[in-house]
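Troubleshooting log. The previous structure file for this entry was overwritten by mistake, so regenerating from the original sequence record. Sequence copied from the archived sheet and checked twice against the printout by T.R.
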Amino acid sequence: MKQVSHMTTCLLLLCAAIPSWAQESTDIHSPTHKAWDMLTTAIFSKRIDERASGVRALGLLRDDPQAREFAEYALDDPKPEVRSAAATALGQMHAIESIPKLRGTLNDRKIPVVMAAAQSLRQLQDEAAAYVIYYELLTGERKSSDGIIAQQIQTLKNPRELAKIGFSEGIGYVPFAGIGWDAYRTLHKKDPNPVRAVAATFLAHDPDPATSKALLKATNDKNWIVRAAAIEAIAQRGDASLLPNIETKFKDRHRKVRYSAAAAVIRLSGEESSQTAKKQ
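Regenerated output below.
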């Protein structure tokens, strides 16, 4: 049997959408009808940027089966920009039903798409799947024998490829907790490491002990923004056993790392005192 073409599938989905429009309004001139017409025209456009923009806008439509179906379909779009937009939209619309499809997207060939899917899974409380991705992005190594993006490890170690991710829709909107947009704007055009800083930030609440070791190692990274992000993540984890290691960062050559370390030591000291009080 001949494989159904991309455009044929688009038409089938478009036809399926018409009844839902009719339920909203029988007036083709109604705002709702015009709005859906505008969105579907964009979603099924031949232009990549049009499709990506239309799909991304679907994230505003929570509890809308048709919007979710369109976004899920776009996960298989030939272009990674559209697939990233689809993964992001599913997270924004809180599409819990789409978790299995988003997990499948973690095997995408393009890391920006994987990042977008991981972020959405994190939003949908499927954090375990997301943590695997962030761990591999931070360390460039497998977290377990069945690492999801293990086949992309060489790409993760390639500075030029990592630099491209900084411009991707998958993480472009993610701020660095406590570091500030000034650092992001300064570095993201020329340095790949902000991607790893984002990964470190999102690993703050991963309960796996291996993650604590990975974050501790990242506090010695050659790039200050990764060091600062790792220190902040350790502080949020509340692991007082790492307090002596963080205290050594008072002598870091970058002031933002030193300040992050100072705040982390205060927070972890409080955690240590609380733990001691509970034991007594």
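The radius of gyration is 22 Å. Archived copy saved in two places this time.
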